[in-house]
What we know:
By secondary structure, this protein is α/β, with parallel strands linked by helices. The chain is built from seven helices and five strands; from the N terminus they run E-H-E-H-E-H-E-E-H-H-H-H. The chain has two domains: 3-111, Resolvase, N-terminal catalytic domain (Rossmann fold, 3-Layer(aba) Sandwich), CATH 3.40.50; 119-215, no CATH class. A five-stranded mixed β-sheet has the order 2-1-3-4-5, with helices on both faces. A hairpin with a 4-residue loop joins strand 4 and strand 5. Helix 3 crosses helix 4, helix 4 (114-147) packs across helix 6 and helix 6 packs across helix 7 (201-215).
Amino acid sequence: xxxxxxxxxxxxxxxxxxxxxxxxxxxxxxxxxxxxxxxxxxxxxxxxxxxxxxxxxxxxxxxxxxxxxxxxxxxxxxxxxxxxxxxxxxxxxxxxxxxxxxxxxxxxxxxxxxxxxxxxxxxxxxxxxxxxxxxxxxxxxxxxxxxxxxxxxxxxxxxxxxxxxxxxxxxxxxxxxxxxxxxxxxxxxxxxxxxxxxxxxxxxxxxxxxxxxxxx
Length: 216
């Protein structure tokens, strides 16, 4: 199976004088893809500062590598992806998809320096602990609800609901019941997430207030 790649080209401004740079980058990277036997399945360009994360071409590229099996991102050099902290953050996102970043200047995979490697390792550790903390909060909310007499088995059918508008149709009776048992709105949102409802504590609070207003 032929390896797949995407190409990313960037210049810092929209000045016409830099248009030739975009064209040259694309032509050179298309040639590099051919030489390295990659099938190019996307070309993304931006005319913005490398310190700016909100770039249409970059965001589209990240969507593609996260949603498809892309073997490599080809760039003129690593600064095309970003500069400063933005560069490290972008390399981190791409690294998590197991997609290589190949520079035309080195004609090979970008090798991170010791500081970059350390930062990426720290980011990965922080993200892992954030996931663990989030899951622990859900378990804590559910445990407290059960201790106060809540029976989650009555709502197991919600777990199989797909994403979309239905998930916003929250069981107000469950919200009221959990609130009456003394749970905070944050804890109630954690319980509902455990039952398949994607909901914030702000939404839970709003729905509870709406219920109270209707009752009065």
